[in-house]
Amino acid sequence: MEATVKKPKKLKLKTARRDQYKRYTRSKAGNFFYTLFLLIMGLYSILPMFYTIITSFKPLDELLVFPPRFFVIRPTTSNYSVLPSLLDNLSVPLSKYIFNSLFVSIVTTILHVIVASMAAFVLSKTNIKFKGLIFAIVQFSLLYNAYTLEVPRYLIYSGLHMIDTYWIYILPNIPASMGVFLMKQFMDANVPDPLIEAARIDGASTVRTFWQIVMPVVKPAWLTLSLFEFVGMWTVTPTGTIFSENLKTLPYAASTIVAGGLTRQGAAMAVAVIMMIPPIIVYLVSQRSVTQTMSSSGIK
Amino acid sequence: MDATLKEPKKVKAPKKKRIRGIESKKSMYGRMFILPWCIGMLLFFIIPLFQSLIYSFSTVWVEPGLMETELSGLENYKFILNEDPNYTNNLWSAIQSFFRNMPIIIIVSLILAIVLNQKYPGRMIFRSVFFVPVIVATGVVMELLTKNLNGVDAIITLTTETENVYSEGTGGMDFTVVLQSLNFPEEITKTMSGLITNIFNTLWSCGIPIILFLAGLQTIPEQLYEASTVEGATKWEEFWYITLPMLSQTLLLVIIFTMIDLLTQNTNPVIQQAYTLMSAQSVYDQSAAMLWLFFGIIGLGVGIVIFLYTKILLKKWN
Fold first, then answer.
1. Which residues, numbered 58 to 97 in chain B, qualify as contacts with chain A under a Cβ-Cβ cut-off of 8 Å?
2. What is the pTM for the complete model shown?
3. B286: which chain A residues are within 8 Å (Cβ-Cβ)?
4. CB of B20 less than 8 A from some CB of A
5. Position A299 in a domain
């Protein structure tokens, strides 16, 4: 601890320095490299996003400068205000696409998290027969890219009369196996069996055990899962299964704008920025809880 | 699968009558809980999967309104392996790039997760710096970021170039030259410089592993570290004897996730080839065979990894 008091001034975060020093290295050099590593990686990771945001505020003449400049000199919001008019020929207002995307993403995320957690609970904490087989199917199905199933799935969609409805977005994505896999792993690791036993002895029903004991304990896991699922659904673009303009989502509208070419570059960047906002909001909401410790699991 | 769902009733039934009330109620709840998922899985995964497996062993042609199939044995597989000029090359390059990226992603994301897991002011901002690009850079936005706009190279390349301009201005260095001057074998030089140019993709692939590692790290009780500090363990020992063993489940999860993520991306050459064949030329049988062979290999690989991991590493750590 004494050593932590005197620190090189080069490092950026004063307290970060102290904690890292305390926890991970006992040398100034190690400490320095940790911070440096973090800074360089962070910079590389975030740069393209900043570039997109900055570019979305560039007026046309600055967009066409070669070599491209990183910063904007005369910022303008015209790239945003021009968006609604760009979609005029599509007969549906921009807000409808945004609504569709939000609706589909939120509904699917909620349903997927509930269905996957329930299945994971059964697989993790009960002795249902064929448990092993079902979990083997879960793991096996993780391997499959959606392309493999596209054609046979289409036949099923049309058999269920799902073509050209909201269902096409929602239903096939609910039983995705990644959720079950993730939730089961976390329940195995973080929900001790004695906790379930105790709940049963106290007379809690299975439903109540699930909702009031298991789910709060694995909250970080399902919040993370909902983040993944939301992001996945937010960018979903069905091919050949949605024909009504009314039911199409924002990524579709975005790709129409992007296809506009050279002069639409600013608008394309503006749409990209709009596309970024909801995932970031979901991220902020979910990560706030994820960072809370999972130590409240009752037994430890 | 139907049988799977109904079977448990039979199992519970022969039990003695007096406990049947509670037990059967419980098992009923068990089945109710897993039922929605099973139905969905059956409809949207298992049936289509078998259908496509059948396609891969058949000749498929489309008649107006329906698809005709006729079993043809291993014909499709023989064709893609022996006669298709690109398939084996694509397969090979997919596997190579997998082996190049996998270890880097796991190691980098583990280090970043450990560093990010520290308690310091502004760590939310630091974490966000790594996650936000990952969660926003999917689908259309990713396309936009990499798309060839303005007749110039992709925006990512532009940013890299601007970066390089800055670093050259401040006496920065060209990594490839540095590596070559160090007399490493050519293969390593190539891999390293490939990694540096692909740094965005690599870093973005680290996002989800970092989240998983962080969630895992948060479950390690603080007392373990306190105890080891009292015992006089070094940080290095703490990492190998506490952090890593406690993360063993998470690590397996991350390894499997990364394998699958790397190999089933839509940009994968094998998947690209099969998809083009399927969507542009409506060749459903050969494309199904291509995908099935590829996924068979991945499945085998994942199986071997899980087996080795649970048999060797987990035993050692527990």
1. 67
2. 0.73
3. none
4. no
5. no
Domain count, chain B: 2
Domain boundary pick from A30, A51, A79? A79
Of the candidates A23, A175, A283, which has its C-beta nearest B45's C-beta?
A175
Domain range enclosing B20: 2-56
Do B10 and B120 lie in a common domain? no
- Tell me the pLDDT tens digit for each residue of B204-248: 777 778 877 887 887 788 888 888 888 888 878 888 888 888 888
Residue A72, classed as helix, strand or coil, is coil
Q: CA angle at residue B51 from B48 to B53, to 5 degrees?
A: 110
ipTM: 0.72
Smallest CA–CA separation between B185 and chain A, in Å? 26
**Which residues, including other chains, have CB under 8 Å from residue A234's CB and lie 6 or more apart?**
A101, A105, A250, A251, A275, A278, A279, B138, B139
Residue type present at position A111: L
Judge if B102 and B208 occupy the same domain.
Answer: yes
